[in-house]
From TrEMBL:
PROSITE patterns, alphabetized: SLC26A (PS01130), STAS (PS50801)
Membrane topology: Multi-pass membrane protein
SUPFAM superfamilies: SpoIIaa-like
Transport listed as a keyword: yes
Organism whose genome encodes this protein: Hibiscus sabdariffa (roselle)
Identification of the protein by name: STAS domain-containing protein
InterPro entries in the record: S04_transporter_CS (IPR018045), SLC26A/SulP_dom (IPR011547), SLC26A/SulP_fam (IPR001902), STAS_dom (IPR002645), STAS_dom_sf (IPR036513)
Amino acid sequence: MYTISSAYQTHALLCFAFILMGNSDYVYPDRRCPHRVAVPPPQPFFKSFKNSLKETFFPDDPLRQFKNKPPSRKFMLGLQYFLPILEWGPRYSFEFLKADLISGITIASLAIPQGISYAKLANLPPILGLYSSFIPPLIYAMMGSSRDLAVGTVAVASLLMASMLGDKVNAAENPTLYLHLALTATFFAGLLQASLGLLRLGFIVDFLSHATIVGFMAGAATVVILQQLKGVLGLERFTHSTDIISVLRSVFSQTHEWRWESGVLGIGFLFFLLSTRYISKRRPKLFWISAMAPLTSVILGSLLVYLTHAEKHGVQVIGNLKKGLNPPSFGDFVFTSSYLSTAMQTGMVTGIIALAEGIAVGRSFAMFKQYHIDGNKEMVAIGTMNIVGSCFSCYLTTGPFSRSAVNYNAGCKTAMSNVIMAIALMFTLLFLTPLFHYTPLVVLSAIIMAAMLGLIDYEAAIHLWKVDKFDFMVCMGAFLGVVFASVEIGLVIAVAVSVLRLLLFVARPRTFVLGNIPNSTIYRNVEQYPGTNSVPGILILEIDAPIYFANASYLRERISRWIDEEEDRLKSAGETSLQYVILYMSAVGNIDTSGISMLEEVKKTTDRRGLKLVLANPGAEVMKKLNKSKFIETIGQEWIYLTVGEAVEACHYKLHTCKPDSTDEEPQPWNNV
């Protein structure tokens, strides 16, 4: 009789005893890792389904504020949710009013020339640009959650509308039908935007990645700038196409019609606008110089034309703008079958673009001021203001970056600055529109060109190139598609490449070989940490994504290849042969039936090759499905561990005591007794 000196020897002796008895399937009593990976308790299907829906559509838990509140308070909170003005309105102070008054007047000075310019860009009557800066800001002030967003028309959406509607109706030949289609498209855009917010589908907008928006905006800005050569050169006939080749052909095929007077004015005002922007960037406190520059250009240009009678020498002017507030346009919507699809398509595309820009701008300034805006609430607000606006002769509006930046720099405190801007536009519509009769179109072109140059963010493109080459490809795909094909094609290319990348992430997840960091129980990617050590006889693989039908076959083949490469490496190095394969599944958040079938096939493959499959740290959802599919019984609960360290320790111990199951090899001698 002898004395057993340690638990380690006890396990070894027990293993040896079972080998002598002909049982090589013995599972040792693992005292080294008493904790096992738990299978979560079963949940009713409807409870699980409810939780999934909540995480998908209500990640911000908007109903939390209604809990344990009396009915009257719930009613008030509900009103405040849809009308945030009821929340901040009672706390509004005179100090806020002074700040918002300055901001509102400042952005009104920018809204007037921009509104007229962008309406011309959309091939709409200039007065519609002023109408669109009156009604929608009032709606947004009541429903919007951003303090800094300044509502108005935007160049990219205006260009998109002109391009898509122009393919169906010529604005010059049939201006009334074109106008009605623009209002109808705005109605459908608002309907889509509000629906996305009410149905909590805001995540759809996230498919427009940052790289997509950078490239698309730069491409659209380039196209818009080229389109303005018509106004700068004083051309009367111009191409309706937006691609760079058609535009340049149209410009240089009419060199005999270039007006030098118009060109001098355009270059002069463009230089003035860019100079004021440069000053404001160098001295942020002088932001008002850049903000007032467009209106100053309009006033100076109008005076110059009036005093010199330049309109008689080839300088085109706006002409008469009728006085008065927005006329209703309920009866102007076009729902006939021949034009309905065009209006809906235009509304959907421009609505998504406008929504993405408005939410991105709102979130950016909210981050600067450290407050939160609700994306779904913003969608409802932007959608509602476009629905109401389309009924009162307004075309598509959102929160443009340039106007919102001026609003932010002017020190606005609440959305009341939009109300101040709307009141200023109201006085303009009632009394001042005749003053714009002599405003030269070349000044409007210079204003648009100056604004569009700010949208070409070459620094962001360089950053994309340095950080992520694929994102840079997405950016350039959008840019080149817009510039050389059309705005719609560029957008489709950008979204398609972004979705392709998303599918590649899902279908081709990363897998890594893990090694041991010396003098620790930590295991990390051997490529990231070259100083790690491999564990003799054990291959540790990390799967870095959920396992679905789209990537199950790839993972099966990739795991087999890892095993082949590891066995070849061990054979060439003359090291211990491979015995165990550990799959580290911490990043596998979910798995479907195809993924489970993949694991079963991997288990069969490792068994045939005399290897043992081990799992480390599968998550709750994964364990639940593995349990229901009986895979845990197939692999054995004793081969599932909480950590890689515990799995390696157990495999290392068994490797030195008794060889794992094998049908084609004899058990190796045990040692360390």
